[in-house]
Amino acid sequence: MPLSGTSACPRRCADCRLRAAHAFKPVSPQELAFIESFRSGSALAPAGSAIISEQNPNGKLFTLYAGWAFRYKTLSDGRRQILNFLLPGDIIGLQQEFADGPSHGVEALTDAALCVFPRDGLWELFRRFPSLGYDLTWLAAREEGMVDENLLTTGRRNATERLAMLLIHLYRRAERLGLVQDGSMAFPINQQHIADALGLSLVHTNKTLRRLQQLGLHELKGGQLSLLNPKALHRIADYYDLPMRKVPML
Amino acid sequence: MPLSGTSACPRRCADCRLRAAHAFKPVSPQELAFIESFRSGSALAPAGSAIISEQNPNGKLFTLYAGWAFRYKTLSDGRRQILNFLLPGDIIGLQQEFADGPSHGVEALTDAALCVFPRDGLWELFRRFPSLGYDLTWLAAREEGMVDENLLTTGRRNATERLAMLLIHLYRRAERLGLVQDGSMAFPINQQHIADALGLSLVHTNKTLRRLQQLGLHELKGGQLSLLNPKALHRIADYYDLPMRKVPML
DNA sequence: CGACATGTTGAGATGGATCAACACTTGTGG
DNA sequence: CCACAAGTGTTGATCCATCTCAACATGTCG
User: Fold this and answer.
1) Tens of pLDDT, residues B134-163
2) Is the CB of residue A81 less than 8 Å from the CB of residue A105?
3) Which residues contact B121 (CB under 8 A, 6 or more apart)?
4) pLDDT in tens, chain A (250 residues)
5) Residues of chain A with C-beta less than 8 angstroms from the C-beta of B79
6) Chain B residues closer than 8 Å to A145 by CB
7) Which residues in B lie closer than 8 A to residue A97 (C-beta atoms)?
8) Are both A144 and A177 inside the same structural domain?
9) Which residues, by CB, come closer than 7 Å to strand C?
10) Which terminus of chain B is less hemmed in, N or C, by CB atoms within 10 Å?
């Protein structure tokens, strides 16, 4: 059964539609050739499936080519915290290489297409293409920055501020990737995900989200999100956005 | 005025007492020589001083040689979230290289000794010593893992669990570095820091900490911490520790 | 049709925040 | 040497943001 909406990444990295996007740093032909040889294949992950299991991490490294996913950790009684959301171009599984044990799980939110790399080829990559090693560090640092921001949100913002932050931040990331059309974007996250990402209960998330919507700050229906009053959302979230550099992509 | 207790890092990296510690991955003589040439000097940061300002990040990269520090972010109304604590061997300022703007501040908790590296030599390091580039990615991933854990704590653990987690985690890290003697370690963190790290109010932190102490789980006085009932703390925090590999150090 | 996931809403309970004192220590300047 | 300010820890009273529990609505899918 073909997965609706998502197509697997092309055989040749030179044909990669994602890499051509405005958001990404260009690579040299040599780098591209190496990436293509390094890549061990592609994969499709249906919505809801585990890309990396929290208990039994596989040894693979992925680049998310299309679709959404999220990283999470759980406590043994089931409480779950979503660490960050993953969008096309994000790398998956890099931490596994360095962690002392299983550290987190990754789950697909939508049907997702992935480029697969063997984890044990990582050192080879650093050795042969230091510039790509540099890019990997960049990606790691960038993701850490994202978690930092989420920790600030969860630790110090109240429920309204948290929601505003989440909406703005995801909108901004999607926009950068060209996923926003006519001021509206596909938003494949349900309220349970939002609650788990923000450290709130499901019920309170619902009520707060509803209040924001009734104030006319945003609209969220049919899986589509639009920000009706971005200024106000920025003010509430205490969020200041900066011009974003092109980011590397493996 | 000499800073009590902390000595600056030695002139020659070969004489580095820290690197000789059990916790760190050995480096080759060539790597060591490069690190020494890469290093632009050493510095002392008095307790409470900014190592990296949240507003005006400097372009430097540091390794914390002795003493404690912490990374933090603040909201514009002053609410502060501590992202993680830094102990000897940790790297400081790596994210700055990749962030689009100022991302976080770093402050010394105790008098601290630092090795200083020029940030703009980073690419040179990757190019000439890919193995050190690999180590930097490792350090970045490791720190991200730490923030992940803190996000889980702040988002999903209650006050008691958070405190237990913090005590265990810091104790464990200190132990690894040989900073625990006779079951007791220097603990240079006040309750305001703890509150800011855990997303709690100062008052509630005090009351919860006090309760744990009265239950005989730990003792914290005179700036010294001992865990009197680690088993119980582990159970409360839902924390399982794993054997830790040696980690790299720049 | 029933089962299930998801969203919505109200009522009541509570963990943690806020406010307000006060104790103790340390350093400083008169 | 004392008086005082500043930083830190402690404790009680009260408040409220958020959680929990419990229904019910809606849509999808077999």
Assistant:
1) 999 999 999 999 999 999 999 999 999 999
2) no
3) B38
4) 333 345 788 889 899 999 999 999 999 999 999 999 999 999 999 999 999 999 888 889 999 999 999 999 999 999 999 999 999 999 999 999 999 888 899 999 999 999 999 988 899 999 999 999 999 999 999 999 999 999 999 999 999 999 999 999 999 999 999 999 999 999 999 999 999 999 999 999 999 999 999 999 999 998 999 999 999 999 999 999 889 999 999 9
5) 156-157
6) 95, 98-99, 103
7) 138, 141
8) no
9) A 190-192, 202-203, 206-207, 209-210; B 158-160, 199-205, 208
10) N
Q: Looking at the whole model, is its pTM more than 0.85? A: yes
Min Cα distance B202 → chain A (Å) is 13
Task: Please state, in angstroms and rounded to a whole number, the distance separating the CA atoms of residues A145 and A152.
Answer: 11
Please report whether residue B246 resides in a domain.
Answer: no
- 3-state helix, strand, coil split of chain B in percent (to 5) is 40, 20, 40
Which of strand D's nucleotides are less than 7 A from any protein C-beta? 8-13, 17-22
Yes or no, beta carbons of B151 and A149 under 8 Å apart: no
Domain that holds residue B178: 156-237
- In sequence order, the β-bridge partners of residue B24 are B247
Question: Quick one: B99 and B191 in the same domain?
Answer: no
B110 and B163 together in one domain: no
Q: Residues 190-209, chain B: which have Cβ within 8 Å of A?
A: 198-199
| Pair (B103, B28) in one structural domain | yes
Residues A73 and A140 in one domain: yes
> Any residues with CB less than 8 A from the CB of A239 and at least 6 apart, and which?
A164, A165, A168, A169, A233
Q: Is B145 on the interface with A (CB under 8 A)?
A: yes
The answer to whether position A248 is within a domain reads: no
For residue B4, is it within any domain? no
Q: Do A194 and A179 reside in the same domain of the chain?
A: yes
B127 plus B176 within the same structural domain: no
